[in-house]
Amino acid sequence: MRELPTATDGGRPSLPVATDGGRPSLPAGVERRSFDGRERLATRGPTVYGEPSDGEWRLWDAGRSKLGAMLALGMDTGLAGGESVLYLGAASGTTVSHVADFSGPTYAVEFAPRPTRDLLGVAEDRQNLFPLLKDARKPATYAHVVESNLDVLVQDVATRGQAEVALRNRQFLADDGRLLVAIKARSEDVTADPSDVFESVLGELETGYEVLETERLDRFHEDHLGIVARPR
Ligand SMILES: C[S@@+](CC[C@H](N)C(=O)[O-])C[C@H]1O[C@@H](n2cnc3c(N)ncnc32)[C@H](O)[C@@H]1O
């Protein structure tokens, strides 16, 4: 049986990386800065969701962003800054706006029309952000737009079959790319124990990816598991 971290302990050890006082380095373009006396993540860009700003820096609220939570919890995402990104489940652009602030070309897939309208507004301020009103379960419908050999696949889709979505979109990722996914247990099964759901999702994911690190995100997002993986 795999040893999954509990909601309170840390994830498994990750690969050796450059560290910043024991924590993995943040990508270039992401900093820990002081907001109201607390050290918080921040990126540089136009504000999007009413987040506080300090000059050109704006707070990246880990309570509203699973990827922000993964970085805030010290997971080794492998992000250096400047990567090409496919982001699945962009909603109205809260997290993907921060990703576009420190990345290269950023393709943002969302299948609900209402949030995608907001996402279009977010993209107007960001030349490298490309919103796509598409279903992440059907990558063939956007394969003609999204480049291949991408550095990073970020996934935050609140839908059943989250492992399957990651596997279907593996085709866009370079062989040495990274999958950064947040799994929402309740989207798979509202009644099951989240640990059992995560176990099952990881088992499926491992048919196409090597899992490098997992961490429960409960401090910021209840019953979510953050996963860093790379294609097999
Ligand atoms: C938790 S929200 C994402 C929040 C967003 N990642 C952020 O942090 O700003 C999940 C989103 O996934 C979208 N979604 C669910 N299934 C999807 C699918 N098959 N294709 C594209 N988007 C999907 C939902 O419409 C919703 O906007």
TrEMBL record:
User: What are the entry keywords?
Assistant: Methyltransferase, RNA-binding, rRNA processing, Transferase, tRNA processing
Return the similarity comment.
Belongs to the methyltransferase superfamily. Fibrillarin family.
Q: What does this protein do?
A: Involved in pre-rRNA and tRNA processing. Utilizes the methyl donor S-adenosyl-L-methionine to catalyze the site-specific 2'-hydroxyl methylation of ribose moieties in rRNA and tRNA. Site specificity is provided by a guide RNA that base pairs with the substrate. Methylation occurs at a characteristic distance from the sequence involved in base pairing with the guide RNA.
Group of enzyme by EC: transferase
* MF (Gene Ontology): methyltransferase activity; RNA binding
List the GO biological process terms: methylation; rRNA processing; tRNA processing
The name this protein goes by in its record: Fibrillarin-like rRNA/tRNA 2'-O-methyltransferase
User: How is the quaternary structure described?
Assistant: Interacts with nop5. Component of box C/D small ribonucleoprotein (sRNP) particles that contain rpl7ae, FlpA and nop5, plus a guide RNA.
What Enzyme Commission number does this protein have?
2.1.1.-
Q: Where does S-adenosyl-L-methionine bind?
A: 94-95, 110-111, 135-136, 156-159
Spans annotated as Disordered: 1-30
HAMAP family according to UniProt? RNA_methyltransf_FlpA
What organism does this protein naturally occur in? Answer: Salinirubrum litoreum
